Amino acid sequence: MDWQAFWLTIRLAVLVAAVLVFLGLPIAYWTAYSRWRWKFLAEAVVALPIVLPPTVLGFYVLVALGSRSPLGRFWQVLTGHTLAFTFGGLVIGSIIYSLPFAVQPFAASFALVDPRLIAASATLGASKLQTFVRVILPLSLPGLVTGVALSFAHTMGEFGVVLMVGGNIPGVTRTVSIDIYDQVQALNYAAANQTALVLLAISFAVLSLVYGVNRKAWTVGPRK
Amino acid sequence: MIQPRKDSSDLRVPLAADGGLQDVLTVQLHKRFSNAGRDFTLDILFTIIPGITILFGPSGAGKTTLLDCVAGLTPPDSGKIAVSNRVFFDHVRRTNLPVQNRNVGYVFQDLALFPHLTVGENVEYGLAGVDRLKRQKKRDAILESFRIAHLHRRKPREISGGERQRVALARALVTDPCVLLLDEPMAALDAATKSKIIDDLRVWNAAHAIPIVYVTHNREEVFALGDRVLVLENGRIIADGTPHGVMAAPRQESLAQLIGFENIFHAVVAAAHEDRGTMTCRIADSNVELETPLVRAETGSTLLVGIRAGDILLATVQPSGLSARNIIPGRVLSLEQRDVIVAVRVNCGVEMEVQLTLAARDALQLQPDRAVWLIVKTHSCHLMMAT
């Protein structure tokens, strides 16, 4: 088993899950409470990675990170290299790819908080941020765990986006699923099976955690 | 001219110490909204002084929306809401103070206690900006006033309904609000628990003297609590006064409420007992006299009396030592079983229908021509204007 690829994948998944907590919470808050009439469009954009082929998503991320896009050029001027085919690029691609797996459970659990509790908090002098921290977050804990666990697991097993954005550079962008693919290509089925089993076990453990915390079915997919 | 804004806490001096200054809630608002699919207009103008004022009205009269406007949870279309000279909302000046800056105590219908916090943490919630020692002191004092100090480590789901009610009151009052809004807070409590809690609230308010708006659709609560009642119907205040003066006034539109009363009679007002809040009515063309709640009606005038068949008790021996004021002798005319209920028709000068359970019929061995006594509480007699 390729431990280098394994630890790289763990590092990637932890980083992505952590970033998604900070990025996902405000987006989810807005999704749950905004009354903007075009909100559904924004929701659709956030949910897009669920249905988009990873190669399509990966392709656009690659283009956006490349030296021909304004973003890529800006990064190149800033740091001297492009983000494409680097670990950093992989993180960005993975964050976008896993965004709905964090935002949707977050938003669903926010929406379940009794609006009268939020009103009570306001009448007791709490600002919106205080209400969020002291009432909404604690009461949404199962949704938070779900979102973090799902985005972790989803990043652990991603393939298409990684291949498009990161390529297959050992120690930099070669993740476990790419490693499995390589083993199979080399007809090394025993090694592939070993790695695949580890991924399977991790996925099972994560989903057990999710179901255990929620104690009721959580289906991955668009809300409602 | 724009007047300088002053914090009302400067003005909130206990009445006894000062003799005149008090918080007064003035509400003048207009709001159109859609309620359960139909357009609804709230058109309100009132002033509330310190003490408990009852806001009475049927479900869907706009009571909760009105409270939400005062608390700032929903904006009126126009008007002005202020406590003394502290303006919460002013359409003309485009003032709309955010909820968290209004310092309004609001006890919601379902109480809205934070389920993840203990009783103590719930009560402390509104004291976030206060330093720790002072916060604990205030918390302990209010827990003591509402007799829930021993519960402060429990979660809301681990205490009784009456205790939860006390926690909700303590949580709302610990911040020294300038007005307290209670939205049918005690609908689920029995009368004894309710009156103890209200007593503690009155004691608290004797020292603080803030206006308290108590919303209810329960007539008994109106008589038990209110010094003053505002009657809200279809988004408008239709009456304002003392419980007896307001609630008793028979109103034309109440006729609709007669639907569902099995016993409806014309009755003549024989005597009014204003000191007791009751009056004596004689059912037309009979000698049957009923003691009924007092309404605003001339002696000798004719009213409609409605009594639900399920509100009448039936006895086979003459009862004594009862609190009910109306004990009417009669004879059973017929028994008719309707599903699991027995409708008994009794001739007692007029014909009345009484509804019993099957078990009660069997236990009493009721049969036609049996002598019986009907027992009717004063407040089971509903009076309406005869048309």
Describe this structure in a few short sentences.
The complex is a heterodimer of chains A (224) and B (387). With 224 residues, chain A is mostly helical. Helix content of chain A is 76%, strand content 0%.
Keywords:
heterodimer; A: 224 residues; mainly alpha; MetI-like fold; 11 helices; disordered C terminus; B: 387 residues; alpha+beta; Rossmann fold; OB fold (Dihydrolipoamide Acetyltransferase, E2P); six-stranded mixed sheet; five-stranded antiparallel sheet; 9 helices; 21% helix; elongated; disordered N terminus
Question: Would you give an account of this structure?
Answer:
The complex is a heterodimer of chains A (224) and B (387). Chain A has 224 residues and is mostly helical. Chain A has one domain (3-214): Orthogonal Bundle (MetI-like fold). Chain A has helices at residues 3-33, 39-51, 54-65, 70-79, 87-112, 115-123, 128-139, 141-156, 160-165, 176-185, 189-214. The model of chain A is unreliable at 217-224 (pLDDT under 50). Helices cover 21% and strands 35% of the residues of chain B. Chain B has nine helices and 21 strands. Chain B has 387 residues and is α+β, with helices and mostly antiparallel strands. The longest helix of chain B has 18 residues, at 191-208. In chain B, helix 5 (161-173) runs parallel beside helix 6. Chain B has two domains: 8-103 and 176-247, P-loop containing nucleotide triphosphate hydrolases (Rossmann fold, 3-Layer(aba) Sandwich); 252-385, RNA polymerase II/Efflux pump adaptor protein, barrel-sandwich hybrid domain (OB fold (Dihydrolipoamide Acetyltransferase, E2P)). Chain A binds chain B through residues 114, 116-117, 119-127, 130, 134-135, 138-139, and chain B through 71-73, 98-106, 108, 110, 112, 114-116, 125-126, 128-129, 171-172, 175.
